[in-house]
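Worked example 2:
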Amino acid sequence: MAASDIDTPTGRVRVVSDGEAIVGIGWIAPGTILESPDEDSVSRETAAQLEAYFAGRLTAFDIPIRFRGGSLFERAVWMAMCEIPCGETRTYGDLAALTGGVARAVGGACGRNPIPIVVPCHRVVGSDGKLVGFSGAEGVATKQWLLDFERGQARLF
């Protein structure tokens, strides 16, 4: 495994690669001291694309991803999230209809998404548009920030 760390407006994140694809992205809690990661070309490219995303120069990621673990249903939800365009949202019910599940199960799959931001679970909202939860950084506040950021950026492209 290889990794790259990047400072973002939502906190420091670590991008984890298996050498061929990204397998994880996670926030590093403030004050956490980690060993410097051994980077590879995949983690470096992902970090570069995340930097471009947060600089407002990228609205769609073009990097290989690989889901390790997760049920067939969760993987279907994660792939469906990849189809949500930057600056837009879908409801848990929308994804349930696409994947043959129920909204609550979609919410569980979103919470277990191993590759947030790139696999945009932040773009999934409640049926009334309410932000129900988010597993990264500061939770719903980070989800709101990402959605506001993307909506602003989407108008620029």
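The CA atoms of residues 86 and 94 lie 16 Å apart. The helical segments are 41-54, 72-81, 92-99, 103-111, 140-154.
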